[in-house]
Every structure is written in structure tokens, then in C-alpha cells.
Amino acid sequence: MNDYKNRGFLHSVRPMDQPSEMARLEESLDVAAHVAERLGHDFGNVLTGILGFTELALKQVPPDSLAHGYMREVLQSSMSAAAWVHKLQLFSRRAAQKSSATNTATTLAMVLAEEGARITGAWGGRVALQVKVEEGLPPIPMEADALREALAQALANAFENCAGASRGAAGIAGSMAGGVVHVAAQSCELSDTKVANLLGAAQPGRFVETAIRDDGPRMPEDVRGKLFRELFFSSKGRRRGMGLAVIYGILRTYGGAMRFDAGGERGNTLRLYMPAAIAPASNAAAPTTASANARTEKRILVVDDDPVVLASVSETLESAGYDVRRAESGDVALRDEGIRRKGNANDASQLVVTDVLMPRMNGFEMARRFLERDPAVAFLFISSQADTEALAGAELLERFPLLRKPFEARSLLRAVDAAMVGREMAGRGTTGCGRQP
User: Fold this and answer.
1) Taking the model in full, what pTM does it have?
2) How confident is the model at residue 336, as a pLDDT?
3) Which CATH superfamily is domain 292-427 in?
């Protein structure tokens, strides 16, 4: 441990101080996560309305008009803001996504190959990628989307450092565009001692270690010291940062951990530790979504205490051909649905799209009462709360999907179509209603 001071975010700490310094760093990140969670929740609701109404307005304006161009710019800017909010949510999550799927284990080699091809294509061959994956690696009990995001952030940082993209903003001696990013994945055992030197939520046991090493300029000590202590710190000029914070949030959520190692004169290595699964990964296909032509006569109840989100979601679904009812709270939804069912049983809502956090009665409690009346009704939960899975009643997410705000119209329609198909499949005695990204 004599070389510990060169290992990254705890580079200035004496060996005897490591546990207390690690605890202080974890505590600081936990405080930052609570702040990020509130920001993500509030801005998630705001952006859901902006995205929804902008897309609706675009349909009403001639494509070749100046107004259409302006609204496209608003939409693009809103989508960029939504991506930033999703990063906040990933960082501040504490519980893994629950799913109706019986096995959520993911094969690292497959996701790594997809992300590797994507990022090398995006960089146009300016940076090479070398990948070595140990044969027979166990699957990882993570959602593929979460693993893909963690790898994407890590590879993006390594590629940019190789290409000299971090030059200037952090005072790093720049390099010419080029270089190689090396990725090596292998299984390993983490002991109590090794876990104590990692940042995250890992417990001793079997893990998959993925080491991502670039041969760009070595990160200076003053920059390394800010990587985790300053949530929005970035050494990439106009970029918003948060890449390492997002990786940390994802790994912590799934019981993993990470470590940053600075090399000698050149090169930096980010090591990701993800718990190994016992069961093999599932290759089950997701249910096929319904076509727009099949939406006629399908009744949806939308419930949200935010009037802008309620209107945006409802009108998006109406424009797609669904028969939509609205309610501004869970108790109002139960009352109105009860009146409809007494008047005409065939007029009952087939799907309820509901926010989770609402006053008086949250979405999970409302869904439970709905299901007591009619076990056949389906649900699509929507939420900008990062830790929705940790709330009371979240076991319903094992049966019904969750769509995170903010979302675009196509994501909403895809999720609703899939939920409708899942309802029909369940009615025939088959499984459905899987998780939505």
C-alpha cells in the first residue's frame, strides 16, 4: 500500500487514513446524491411538459416554416436537458430497477462489443480500441441499459483523453489526436481488504473486473482530487461532466465499485467491479408492441398531480388515437373510475398511466386499490423520482413497467403500446409487461 498515493481519488491520503477518508468521500457523495435527486425530480416534471407540448406543436406547424425550425431547436435543447436529468437520476439511485423479467443478468462481452463499435465509429478511427475479454466470464446481474451507460461514460472519457480533448480546461498537457484505449475484462475475487480500497457498495465475493486504460496524458493530482468531490466538475471544457459520478451511481446501485488509477507519465486506468451472477443471462425477447392502427377503442386513464404533465401525456396519447381520461390525483381516479364502471362495465379503463409520487395517495397505493376491484387492469408507472424502486409498494414494478420522466413522445407511445400488449398476453395466460428503458 506504499504506492497508494498514486492510485487516484485518494492520492493524498496516508495509508492509515484510508478508511476514514473513504467514509468521508462516500458521505459527501451521498449528500450530493440527495441534492441531485431533488433536481432530477423537479426538472424531470418540467421537461416532460416541455418535450410533450413541443412535439405536439410541431405537428401543427408547416415543416418548411420558420416557426417549425425554431421549435425543432427547442426540442433538441430540451432533449439535451433531459439527458442531463437522466444522468442526475442515475447518480442518485439507490435501488436497482425491479422488473417482471425473471432474469436480468447481462453478458458483458455483448454490451462491450456494441458500445465499442459505437464509440469507435463516432470517433472516426482517430482512436483505436483494443478489447480482451476472458473466456467464460459469468453474467452480470445488471440491466443491459445500465451496464451500457456505465461503459459508454467510461469509454468516452478514455477516448477523449487519448485524443487530447481534455486539453486546456484542466491545464493538462495536450496530446495530438490518436492513441489506443485498452479494455480488459476478467473475473476476480474481492477480499475485505480490496473492497476497503474501492469506491462503491461492493461486498467481498466474486466480481467481473473491467479495466479501461488510455495512453493519453496522465491526469494531474489537482484534477484527480476533484473527480468525485465536485459533482459537476469536468476537465472537458464545455462538457457538463458527471461521467464518473454516473458510473459510480450505477455501480453502487447494483452492488459494484470502482477505482481510478493514474499511470506514470502517460495513461490512466478506470477499474469497474461488477458482481458476478450465478444464473445464466436470459435471452428472452421483449413483447412486440402494438401498431398505431390497433389503438382504436383502447381506453387509458392518465393520473398525475402536475397539471402540465397530465395535459402533455394525455394529449400525446389522444393524438396517437387512444381514448384518454384524466385525473389529477389517485383518489379522484378511483372515484371517477368507480362511477364509470357502475354506469357501464365495458367503459372501464384498460390501462392506467400514473405518476408515482402524488399527495394523499401515491401511484402504488392507487394501483393496489384498482387491482382489488379489477385484477385485469394494467399499469404504466411514470416517475422522475430517482429511487422509485425503494418506495413502499414498489413490488408492483415486478409486474408492471416504469417509464422515467422526462421522456419523448415516442418513448411514451412505445411504453404504452407494450403495456397494452402485455395486458392482452396476460389475459391469454402468457407473460408480459416488461420493464421499459
Assistant:
1) 0.65
2) 92
3) Response regulator (3.40.50.2300)
